[in-house]
Amino acid sequence: MALELTSLGVAIAGKHPVTGLDLALADGAVLAIVGRANSGKTLLAQAIAGLLPAGATVHGTGLPSKRPGVIGPDANPIELARCLDRGVDLLVCDEPGSALTLAAQRDLLTALLIANRDRGVALLILTRDFRLPSAMGLETAILSGGKLVERGLATALQERPQHAATRELVNAGKPRTRTMARPPIGEPLLELQGVGKRIADPTSRLWKRKSPIAVLENITLSVRRGEAVGLLGAAGAGKSELLHLIAGLGRVSAGELAFDRTPYHGDDLVREARARISLLFPDPHAAFNPDLAVGLSLTEPLRVEEQLLIDEQADRLVEAVRVVGLAPDVLDHLPGQFTTAELQRLALARALVSRPSLIILDEPTAALDPVEEAEFLVLFNRVRSDYGLTVLCASRDFDVLRLVADRILVLEAGHIVEGGKPSELAETGHHAATVALLAVRYPEPLPPALPQAPEPLPAAPEPPVPPEESPAPPEEPPAPELEHSPDETAESRQAEVAVTDGSSDRAGSVDPLDPEPVGQADDDRAASHVEGTK
């Protein structure tokens, strides 16, 4: 057996995220373990690989005596080759290639399958996306609460899920459609004309100057009131840089922007306009001060609106928190007391308290698991419809933008190379960048290895050729018999000769495929955060 765990448990900081786990993996087999965030996947992978963090303890039996290879989110084929060169029998793959581009992740997963098929290396793939084992046709186990709750072929689990955790993961991986009503679309709210941005080359030195690097080049676009525009691009395409310039962070090197017909060049965005633009960052943990109650953080956008009374600010706080599906009492808590999904909802609440006209989202689901992603997108579409928001959303995931955007622009190397409605891009997108971003996310099962042809047997030696004998001299034909005596002449004897007509000659023959009303207790709690006191 490549792995045979019995009653495995992991304890850390007084908690037991993995407990009583049994797992068997045969030599040369492949098993995918699918679980949500905080299900214990990463700790399980670290325990098997012998890489648990300091302070963590493990108990149980069956951990491998020989250290397995480890493939992580940012691994590449070179790291895989190094593991194989060490002669490992087991590869522990924790979200393999999830930090890479879609094409690079697909290539890495294909290489893993090839290593399993051709070298007999056992694979343990831990992921939060049920679509991975479903596409690759793998045997799958569901991890929930630190235990394996269901196991079987991915196709069987998808068709007949028994456990609630399995149903949740399967449903999150199914294609979704947007059903919320769109706000009416009006005149242009945001306009960009020939926008460019250059940054200093980090390798430039005093003694060896290098030209600035162009991260954005000649960006021209417009976003109308009530419209949702998506920016689709791989990592490094310039999406975040463009969003920051629109939000007034940084300054353009060329061109001009206009918000509600007021021109600006980035950080010169006027105060009144700045209050009407909200930006949602990718990592909600980095968006909050860990030492401040979230209620104080949520009041930051309101400080721009000096004319608002304390009671009005408190009402807005309570409303925003309830709109994103949370109770007002969370305003007293520190950021560390929330899950990633809850913090992203609070980040959305902070973006809404100023009643913005334009909301900008930068990879809004990058830190969420597929279940949390589905829930957040449904919530956001409802908020957008209720508030009549204009939206600019950037992502490397076409499936996210397909559910949010009315129109998608494809960004590559700082240039807009293609655009259209999501359905149009899916059907007729032709640029190489579009094709790569819309490609299949995960590889299909590999065909079986071709049998090796047996080596041919050595040919038998030919028998020796006997020496040629000299041909015998031809025999002399016998002398013809005379039909007459020597003394007779031809003329003196008449002969009868039969003449044939050729009729018997056979030469040349041919074979014949309704939010709740705001209570006084909620007002008092929210007001304490507005005033900055408890």
Give the CATH class of the domain at 3-171: Alpha Beta
CATH topology of the domain at 3-171, what is it called? Rossmann fold
> Can you identify the CATH superfamily of the domain at 3-171?
P-loop containing nucleotide triphosphate hydrolases
Specify Rg, calculated over alpha carbons: 39 Å
Judged by helices, strands and strand pairing, the structural class is alpha/beta
Q: Within the largest sheet, what's the order of strands?
A: 5-6-7-3-8-9
Count of runs of 4 or more consecutive helical residues: 16
The description of the largest β-sheet is:
6 strands, mixed
Form type: globular
Query: Which whole number gives the mean pLDDT?
Result: 85
What's the arrangement of secondary structure elements?
Elements: E1 3-12, E2 15-25, E3 30-35, H1 41-49, E4 57-61, E5 69-71, H2 77-85, E6 90-94, H3 102-119, E7 122-127, H4 131-136, E8 139-144, E9 147-153, H5 154-159, H6 164-172, E10 188-199, E11 213-224, E12 228-232, H7 239-246, E13 254-259, E14 262-264, H8 271-274, E15 277-280, H9 294-298, H10 310-323, H11 340-352, E16 358-362, H12 370-387, E17 390-395, H13 398-404, E18 407-412, E19 415-420, H14 422-428, H15 432-437, H16 520-530
Parallel strand pairs: 3-7, 3-8, 5-6, 6-7, 12-17, 12-18, 15-16, 16-17
Antiparallel strand pairs: 1-2, 1-4, 8-9, 10-11, 10-13, 13-14, 18-19
Helix pairs in contact: 6-12, 10-11, 10-16, 11-12
